[in-house]
């Protein structure tokens, strides 16, 4: 049951069996049906979730009332509002919703602190996870500003090869920062080449 998350976290720091036992004992397993709101803007986020199975989107609503998708979290990804809610102790500005039936391992701030106290090397692993998340966010920002819609879509397909069959196209368009109609034109152009 824990092999997937243990493999994921051990990519950054090697752990012995006792450390992994502590890690596994502190997380909570949850199954959540699709279209479930895990977090709403204005709430405090009190979890970090590792996606075992399924697809989640994290988004905000802009000044025009449009949804802007910031992240898709699929198998082996983490999702939360770490930077704003957990570390800044401010109400979240984002929504987190399941797009498919999902299963997760959940950490709360309390269980994570207990983990760090009992198995301190996990603090390094989670720091590396945070650094990787920041690097991905910066790259995404750069791509949004500097790349064409076609380049962004091709990179999306490379990063998420199966997601275009799993989620509605308007979600992908929102993630790419383009309209659904323009995405349709981009896809048609790529199909012709």
TrEMBL record:
<dbReference type="InterPro" id="IPR018490">
    <property type="entry name" value="cNMP-bd_dom_sf"/>
</dbReference>
<dbReference type="Pfam" id="PF00027">
    <property type="entry name" value="cNMP_binding"/>
</dbReference>
<dbReference type="InterPro" id="IPR000595">
    <property type="entry name" value="cNMP-bd_dom"/>
</dbReference>
<protein>
    <submittedName>
        <fullName>Crp/Fnr family transcriptional regulator</fullName>
    </submittedName>
</protein>
<feature type="domain" description="Cyclic nucleotide-binding">
    <location>
        <begin position="30"/>
        <end position="117"/>
    </location>
</feature>
<dbReference type="InterPro" id="IPR014710">
    <property type="entry name" value="RmlC-like_jellyroll"/>
</dbReference>
């Amino acid at each position: 049951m824990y092999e997937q998350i243990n493999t994921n976290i051990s990519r950054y720091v090697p752990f012995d069996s006792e450390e992994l036992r502590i890690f596994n004992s502190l997380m909570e397993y949850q199954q959540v049906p699709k279209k479930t709101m895990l977090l709403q803007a204005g709430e405090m986020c009190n979890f970090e979730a590792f996606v075992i199975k399924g697809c989640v989107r994290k988004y905000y609503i802009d000044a025009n009332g449009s949804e802007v998708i910031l992240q898709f979290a699929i198998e082996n990804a983490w999702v939360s509002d770490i930077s704003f809610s957990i570390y800044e102790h401010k109400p979240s500005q984002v929504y987190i919703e399941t797009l498919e039936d999902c299963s997760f391992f959940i950490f709360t701030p309390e269980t994570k602190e207990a983990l760090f106290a009992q198995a301190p090397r996990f603090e390094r692993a989670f720091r590396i996870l945070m650094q990787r998340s920041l690097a991905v966010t910066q790259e995404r920002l750069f791509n949004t500003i500097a790349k064409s819609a076609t380049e962004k879509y091709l990179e999306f397909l490379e990063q998420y090869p199966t997601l275009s069959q799993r989620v509605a196209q308007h979600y992908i368009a929102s993630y790419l920062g383009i309209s659904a109609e323009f995405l349709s034109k981009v896809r048609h152009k790529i199909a012709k080449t």
